Amino acid sequence: MHETARPRRKLGVMGGTFDPIHHGHLVAASEVANRFALDEVIFVPTGQPWQKVNKQVSPAEDRYLMTVIATASNPRFSVSRADIERNKVTYTVDTLREMQSAHPDAELYFITGADALANILTWQDWTELFELAKFVGVSRPGYELNTDHLEEHLRDLPADAVTMVEVPALAISSSECRRRAAEGRPVWYLVPDGVVQYISKRHLYVPAGTEGA
Ligand code: ATP
Ligand code: MG
Description:
6-stranded parallel β-sheet; NadD/NMNAT; binds magnesium ion; binds adenosine-5'-triphosphate
């Protein structure tokens, strides 16, 4: 008798700098998980992020811990150290290769905001990216969620290679959270409570020399 093949696990992969992680990230992951019936979403904080090589980024360990704090209460969310341990600039293709070798039977869905999607698809090797995962682009206030400029390339790909998903609009960015924290303005309700407390405990984003002020 044949065993019935178990359906492949569906894993979302959400890469990001997460400096800090905020509710825009969490809502995007939750919406996509529901829409595609994902078994799990793995958040993968970047190593030295490739688009941000010249910018100051908080230590990987702080970004990792904030991501753990923010996702701990959701049984379907987890966090991977893969990118922060690679110790070099993160490319999506490396993240996906690593996720695939860690979960060889899973079907991967790479979740990304409208802004980041355009970047990834502009700079990296398409063929390999689409062999590794399906791409889900989520709407983000202030950025256009359209694939018109990708049309020419998308023609050659299966229809489900890139899906655009409208998610509840949260006009939150990590840059704005950092700016607020630096100016002593509140980040409450933009990031999970535990992350507010972690930022304050570790004096993240406070200009050097004013930590105790
Ligand atoms: P920064 O301002 O430092 O660039 P960010 O808010 O863009 O930070 P990232 O860590 O760069 O956060 O983003 C990780 C992923 O989450 C990206 O794919 C990004 O497009 C997506 N994303 C970030 N904020 C939102 C949001 N408010 N709504 C939807 N997607 C988002
Ligand atoms: Mg960004």
